Amino acid sequence: MDETAPAGFETKTVTPEIRSLQDEMRQTFESFREANDSRLGELERRMTSDVVSNEKVDRIAAALDAQKQTIERLALKEMRPALGQGGSRRGEPAGEHKSAFERYVRGGDEAALRRFEEKAMSSLTGADGGFLVPEETETEIGRRLAAISPIRAIASVRMVSTAVLKKPFAISGAESGWVTETGARAQTAAPQLAELSFPTMELYAIPAATAALLDDAAVDIDRWIGEEVEQAFATQEGAAFVNGDGIAKPKGFMTYPKVDESAFAWGSVGTVASGADGGFIDGEAADALIDLVYALKAGYRQNASFVMNRRTQAAVRKLKDEDGNYLWLPPASAGARATLMGFPLVEAEEMPDIAAASCAIAFGDFQRFYLVVDRQGVRVLRDPYTAKPYVLFYTTKRVGGGIQDFDAAKLLEFSA
User: Fold this and answer.
1) 270, 264 in Cβ contact below 8 A?
2) Fewer C-beta neighbours within 10 Å, C or N terminus of the chain?
3) What is the spatial distance between Cα 328 and Cα 317, in angstroms, rounded to a whole number?
4) What is the DSSP string of 164-194?
5) If we measure between CA atoms, which residue out of 161, 124, 200, 199 comes closest to residue 399?
6) Pairwise CA distance, residues 269 & 403, whole Å
C-alpha cells in the first residue's frame, strides 16, 4: 500500500492505530452504501424515503467525516520534519542563528541576534521590530501550513525576497506557420505580453507562553512556535486564498470575474451549469460533473482535483453513476484524499454551499491555477509586558496569492 502524506513532510510507517481506523472507515463506507441504497430503493418504490432512513444515512455520513478527520490528525502527528541540519539561508555556521534565537525567545537576550543580523546585513527585518526566525523554524511553519492549509497544499508556492512578485504572461503567442526549406518566411509579430502582480500582505499570530514553559529546556522552541501559529495562519490563509478581496490579504480565486465557459476569456474563471437552480437535475448529477471535468483541457486534467466544502461533499457522497457505482470513494491510505470520479477531493471549508447560482465546486490543476507567494523571512517580536505574567510572541509572515493561469480550473455553477 502506498502510504502518502502532505507535501513537504517526512513520513513514518503507518501506525497500527491509523491502519485500524482506515479499516473502520472502509467498513463505515460499506454501511453508508447499504443505508443509502436502501433509502434510494424507498424513493423508487414509494416516491419518498422514510425519515429514519434519512437520519441513518446522515448519521453514518457524519461518522465518515469524523473518522477521516481523526486519521488526518493522527497522520499529521506522526510527521516529524528534520530540523537542525546544515546552515541557514545566509550561510552562517549551523546552529548559530538558532542558538541566538532560542536565547531571545527564552530569556529576551537580544544581543546575539542583533549582532547576527548586523553581520548578515538582513533587509528582511520589518520597520516595526522583531527578529527573523532561523531557517529551521521557518521551515517548520511552512511544512505545517502545507499539511493543514487546503489550498496551499495543492497550489504552486513561490518564495520571494521582495514585497511583490511580478510575473509576465503572453496574451497571444508569436505568429508561426509552415514553410518549405527554401520558401520565403514572412515577418512574425512579437508576442503581446502583460504582467500579473502578486503583492505580499502581512499575516500575524500572537502565541503566549508561561515563564515555566520557556524555562523548560526540554521544550523544542521551533516545534512550539510552529504548533502555536499553524492553526491561526492556516485559517486566515484558507479564507483568503478562496474569498480574499486582495485588500490587505491575498486575492481569492472565487473573487475573480466568472463567465459561462462558452464565453471564457483570459482574466475570468469559466463556469459550467449544473442544469438546475440550487442543485442537480434528478438522475443527471453525474452528467453535470462529467461536463465540468471535460470543460478542462486535457493537459490540466492529469493533475486536477475537486475542491468543495464538507456540506457539498456530503451531497456528492450520495451520487451514483449509471451503473450504480458511487462516484465518491474513501481515502485508500493514510494521508491520501477521498476521490470523486477518480480525482482527488480537497475539502476547503471556505467554499460556498450548494445554493441557487452558487459556484460550490471547483475542478482544476491548482498547481497551475493558483499561485501562493511567500516572502522569505518569518519575524518574531517578544513582548513580556502587555499580558503579564505571560510572554507574548508577535509572529508575522508575508503572504500573497492569486490566479496565475485562468485556463487551469473551472467552477460548477448550480443554475439552470
Assistant:
1) yes
2) N
3) 5
4) EEEEEEEEEPPP-----SSS--PPPPPPEEE
5) 200
6) 9
Q: What is the pLDDT of residue 92?
A: 46
Which own/partner pairs from 25-28 qualify as long-range (CB within 8 Å, at least 24 positions apart)? 25/64, 25/67, 25/68, 25/71, 25/330, 25/331, 26/330, 28/60, 28/63, 28/64, 28/67
CA angle 348, 350, 354 (to 5 degrees): 90
- How far apart CA 174 and CA 284 sit, in angstroms, is 43
Q: What is the CATH number of domain 16-78?
A: 1.20.58
Find out whether the peptide bond into 134 is cis, omega within 30 degrees of 0: no
Phi-psi sector, 352: left (phi>0), alpha (psi -120 to 50), beta: beta
Distance CA 373, CA 370 (A): 10
Tally of CB atoms within 10 A around 318: 17
Quick one: which of 371, 373, 400 has its CA closest to 156?
A: 371
Instruction: Yes or no: say if 334 and 373 are a contact pair by the CB < 8 Å rule.
Output: no
C-alpha cell at 390: 505571560
In angstroms, what is the C-alpha Rg of the chain?
25
Distance CA 156, CA 366 (A): 7
Cβ atoms of 375 and 200 within 8 Å: the answer is yes
Which of 316, 341, 268 lies closest to 414, judged by CA?
Answer: 316
CA-nearest of 406, 80, 97 to 257 is: 406
C-alpha 205: how far from its chain's center? 19
Question: Mean pLDDT for each consecutive 10-residue tract of the chain (416 residues)?
Answer: 41 65 78 77 67 76 77 62 43 67 87 72 53 83 85 94 85 68 71 82 93 87 86 92 95 97 94 95 91 96 95 92 89 80 94 96 97 91 92 94 96 96
First-to-last alpha carbon distance for the chain, in angstroms, is 43
Residue 61 CA to residue 313 CA, distance in Å, equals: 10
Domain positions in the chain are 16-78, 85-170+194-309+348-416
Task: Take residue 185 and report the three cell numbers written for it.
Answer: 518566411
For residue 390, the model assigns a pLDDT of: 93
Torsion angle in degrees (nearest 10) through CA of 380, 385, 389, 394? -20
Do the Cβ atoms of 330 and 338 come closer than 8 Å? yes
Contacts of 252 (CB under 8 A, 6+ apart): 239, 240, 241, 242, 243, 244, 245, 350, 401
The predicted pLDDT at position 33 comes to 77
